[in-house]
Design a protein that fits this description.
Distance between the termini: 18 Å
Radius of gyration: 15 Å
Structural class: alpha+beta
Number of strands: 7
Strand content: 25-35%
Order of helices and strands: HEEEEHEHEE
């Protein structure tokens, strides 16, 4: 099944690339690697604001991270023209806005990791880091960056 067919099956429409909010570009390709800048979680087109351990549950976080993965795939498609060119999702780095005693950042990040696995199959299995941080721009609950290899 093609990537586009899988996205349709999951009811996912990829968004266009978001305009950067500061002095950076949404992606850079060097050789066969594509580096996507961090994407924050959005809900209804606005930053998905919250802090884990205070105002958000881990399950809400998984949904937020899944939403970020959809935005990342939209940017990746814009970067490479066709997601079928993706040879491997290499790595995710996830920043989770959380209180000092919150320890489920890895479970929040699973929302993105699991979706990438569903969409890309074995090519979606990736290395990853999930960090708890004191704050993310605009008060967003999650920010994720991605590295992919293309052919």
């Amino acid at each position: 099944m093609s990537i586009n067919d899988k996205l349709k099956q999951l009811g996912i429409t990829l968004p266009p690339v978001a305009t950067p909010a500061a002095a950076y570009v949404p992606y850079v390709q060097t050789g066969k690697l594509v580096f996507l800048s961090g994407h924050i979680a959005k809900k209804d087109g606005k930053p998905w604001v919250g802090q884990f351990g205070k105002t958000m549950s881990t399950e809400e976080g998984k949904a937020a991270a899944r939403a970020v993965a959809i935005d990342l795939m939209g940017t990746l498609q814009a970067a490479v023209g066709d997601l079928q060119r993706v040879k491997r999702i290499v790595k995710l780095m996830s920043l989770v806005n959380s209180t000092p005693d919150y320890t489920e950042q890895h479970l929040v990040t699973n929302g993105a990791s699991e979706l990438l696995g569903q969409v890309f199959g074995d090519k979606g299995a990736h290395a990853r880091s999930a960090f708890g941080v004191a704050q993310i721009p605009l008060g967003a609950c999650v920010e994720i960056e991605l590295i992919a290899e293309v052919d």
